[in-house]
Design goal:
The complex is a heterodimer of chains A (317) and B (254). Chain A is built from twelve helices and two strands. Helix content of chain A is 73%, strand content 2%. In chain A, helix 7 runs antiparallel to helix 8. A two-stranded antiparallel sheet of chain A has the order 1-2. Chain A has a domain of 214 residues. Chain B is α/β, with parallel strands linked by helices. Chain B folds into two domains: 170 residues, P-loop containing nucleotide triphosphate hydrolases (Rossmann fold, 3-Layer(aba) Sandwich), CATH 3.40.50; 75 residues, no CATH class. Chain B has nine helices and ten strands. A six-stranded mixed beta sheet of chain B has the order 6-7-8-3-9-10, with helices on both faces. In chain B, strand 4 and strand 5 form a beta hairpin. In chain B, helix 3 crosses helix 4 and helix 3 runs parallel beside helix 5. The longest helix of chain B has 17 residues. Classes of the chains: A mainly alpha (317), B alpha/beta (254). Chains A and B meet through helix 6 and helix 7 of A and helix 2, helix 3 and helix 5 of B.
Chain lengths: 317, 254
Amino acid sequence: MSKLLSWRGWLVFAALAALPLFPWMSKYYMLLAFDALLFGAVAMSLDLLMGYTGLVSFGHAAFFGLGAYATAVLLERGVLSLWLCLGFAAVVVGVYALTVSYFATSRRGIYFALLTLIFAEVVYTVFRYTQAFGGSDGIQGLPSPELAPGFALDSPARLYYLVVAYLLLAYLACRVIVRSHFGQVLVAIRENEDRARFLGYNVQRYKMAVCLISAVLTGLAGALYPGRSAYATPDLLHWSVSGEFLIMVMIGGLGTLVGPILGGAFFIILQEKVSSYVQWYNIVVGLVLVLIVLFAPRGLLGFRQAMRGRAGREAPG
Amino acid sequence: MSGQATAMLEVEGVSKNFGALAALAGVSLTVRAGEVFSVIGPNGAGKSTLFNVISGLHLPSAGHIIFKGEEITDLGPEVINRRGLAKTFQITNIFPGISVYDNVRVAAQSCVSISGRLTSLWRLPDVEGPVVELLGAFGLAARRDELAQNLSHGEQRYLEICLALATEPALLLLDEPTAGMTPGETKEATALIRGIARSRRLTVLLIEHDMSVVMGISDRIAVLHFGQKIAEGPPAAIRNDPQVIDAYLGGAED
C-alpha cells in the first residue's frame, strides 16, 4: 500500500495540533475551529458518495442529526463514555443508512436524491414531534462526554483535539478506501454503472456499502457535536442542513476528499464571520458561493489544480 | 442437441415480446466450445435482443438459456459475467472519464478473489500483468494514460473488447465489434479478434452486419429474420441458401 499521507499532509495536521498554542486562539476561535473541522469531515464523508460514486444525497443531515441524538440520549441518561456514545451512534446510523440505501439505490439519479430526502424528512418530523426527544426544543443541557472515567471533554481545547483526531482518522480511512479495489469500482459506477454490471459488479451492493460508510462517518461526526453544543435539536436534521453539506462539497471540489474539508471549513467560517457583522449574512454568503461556482466550477481545490496546470502546460479539460 | 462437441451455450426456444412486437420467436441455437459462431440478419431481425436476453439484461418471455450446462435464464448481468460470459456493446460503452489503463484495470479486478469481499475496502489487487498484456494486444499500450473519452472511434472499439476480455470469460459475445470502422480497420480488427480467440481458446458468439467479416471469421452461422432463425450452417452453406439470399443478402443494398 502506498504512503497514506504525504509530508505536506502530516505538516497540516501538525499545524492543526499546534493551533491552540497561539495566544490569539480564544475559546471562541477554538470552538469555531471545532465546527470548521467537524463539518469539513462531514463534507469529506459526503464526497465518497457525490465525488467518487456520483450519487447525490439530499439526506445527510439525518445521518448527522441521528448521530447527535444518539449521543444526546445517552448523555441525558448519565452514560458519559464517549466510546459508548460513538458506538451507539454508529449502530443507529448504520441501521438507518442500510434501510434508506436499500430503497434509494434501487432507483437512479434524481430518484436516489429524492428518496434520501424523503427518508430524512421523515426522521426530522419524528424527532420534531416526539416529546420523548424534547420535540422542537430537542434535548438540552447535556453534560460533557468523558474520554475516560474522570476525563471529561469539557474544555474547548479538549474538544478541539478530539475533532482533529477524528478528522485525521476519518481522512486516512477515506484515503485508503478511494485507493482500494472498492474505491476503483465506485469510480467505475460513477462513470458508467451499466457497464460495471456487465463486468460482474453487483452495483447496488457497492452503492449500499458506500452509503453505509459515508453515513456512519457522518453519524460519528454528529455524535461528537453534543459534546460541544450541549444539545441536540431537530434543526440538525433539517433538509437545509443537507443542502449546506452539498454546498460544502461543491465549493471544495468533488472527488478530492481534501477539497470538501476545505469547503466545509470555509463555509462555516464565512457564515460565522459575516453573521457577526450583518444580519443579512445569508445574502453575502450566497453571493460568495455563486462567485465560486461561476469562477471555480470545480471548487476551491479544482481551481488550484487548474492554475497549477496552466502554469505547467495546458490546463486539463 | 449438443452433438459430439461440448456445448458452451444452449439457447432453447427463446422468445421475447415487447408489447405486441415479437422481437424473438422460438429461437434455438447451440454454440460449441471453441468455435466462432455468428448471428446475422437484417436490421431489426432481433440480433441485439438475443444478446440482451443471453447476457441477462432482458428476461425472455419464453425459453431457456443454458451456459456450461447450467441454467442462467433468470440471472442478472453481473452474475452471468462472473460465470464466465462477457459481452461487448454495439454502441461503445466504456468508462469515459478515467484513463484507458484504469478502464481495463477495473474490469480485470472483477475476477480477482477479493472482489466483493471486505478486504477489497483497503487492498488493491495487482492486475498490472494481464492489463498491460491486453492493452499491448490491441495496440493501446501507448495510450494507457489517456482518458478513454479522448480515444479515436477505432481505439474505443478495441477498448470495448479489452474490457470484456479482462474479466477472463470462457464465452465472449461481440455485438458488431467493427461498427463504424473503415474497411481497413475492419479487416485488421477481424484478424485481431480471430487471433485472440484462438490464443485464449475462447468461444465467440458474434453479431455482425458486415458479410466479409462474418464469412472470414465464423465456423458456423445462424441467420435471424423477423425474430426467427431461418438458417444455420457453415459459411459456404449459408452463402448459397436461397432463403437467406432472399431474406437478407439479396436485400442488403442499403
